[in-house]
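Tokens in:
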């Protein structure tokens, strides 16, 4: 259970960003607590990806405030976001297809020997250790990631984020184009991350998946926040009504 009495991991307060005359994000406020999954829903162009890119440092907000663990955060670029233990897993996963899991996990942050060579043995050992925590069934440590299944590739991307101490994880359409078994594998990974106290923003178009994986769902439309609801308080039809009509469910109004 999420403890909503503690300090939120993330507080987005009154965030605004315009492109030209278009209000891509218009006075949006959202919270995320440790061990919580918050789903972000909305049509293409609703503003959800833009909002999350502000948190990940890809965009700078025109106004508003980001607080991490109760402290005001200055996030001007992705490096700043990483400093606040924010990691983003994009739909494309940003993996090097010709390299194996361990090389991908440490790409750009390689472990080296005392004389400066890449320590392949230690990187593989560390990869096996983190995978044992996240996905004990993962076996293909020496296979190029191009040959892995979609769920296994997600495992590598998630392991990379967790190894480098992510506390706040942004997942963009993590089960898009995956089969039933692969989707279940990703769901199990998300549940494991929750147990370890990470906070996750999950972007998806799949309302049923959101109800299964998330603690709360936030719906955006035309750059504005329609509302945030606990999943036990809403139905799939309620969420669809928020997405399409831009109205909160009557019982929650």
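Residues out:
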């Amino acid at each position: 259970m999420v403890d909503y009495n503690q300090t939120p991991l993330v507080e987005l307060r009154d965030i605004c960003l315009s492109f030209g005359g278009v209000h891509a994000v218009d006075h949006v406020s959202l919270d995320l607590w440790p061990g919580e999954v918050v789903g972000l829903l909305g049509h293409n162009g609703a503003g959800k990806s833009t909002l999350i890119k502000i948190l990940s440092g890809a965009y700078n907000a025109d106004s508003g405030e980001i607080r991490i663990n109760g402290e005001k955060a200055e996030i001007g670029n992705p490096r700043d976001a990483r400093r606040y233990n924010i990691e983003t897993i994009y739909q494309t996963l940003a993996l090097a297809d010709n390299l194996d899991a361990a090389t991908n996990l440490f790409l750009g942050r390689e472990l080296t020997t005392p004389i400066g060579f890449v320590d392949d043995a230690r990187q593989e050992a560390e990869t096996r250790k983190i995978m044992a925590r996240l996905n004990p069934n993962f076996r293909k440590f020496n296979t190029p990631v191009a040959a892995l299944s979609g769920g296994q590739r997600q495992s590598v991307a998630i392991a990379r984020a967790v190894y480098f101490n992510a506390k706040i994880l942004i997942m963009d359409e993590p089960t898009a184009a995956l089969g039933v078994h692969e989707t279940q594998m990703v769901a199990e990974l998300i549940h494991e991350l929750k147990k370890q106290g990470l906070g996750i923003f999950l972007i998806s178009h799949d309302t049923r998946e959101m109800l299964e994986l998330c603690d709360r769902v936030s719906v955006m439309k035309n750059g504005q926040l329609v509302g945030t609801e606990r999943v036990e308080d809403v139905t799939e039809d309620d969420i669809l009504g928020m997405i399409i009509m831009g109205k909160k469910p009557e019982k929650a109004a």
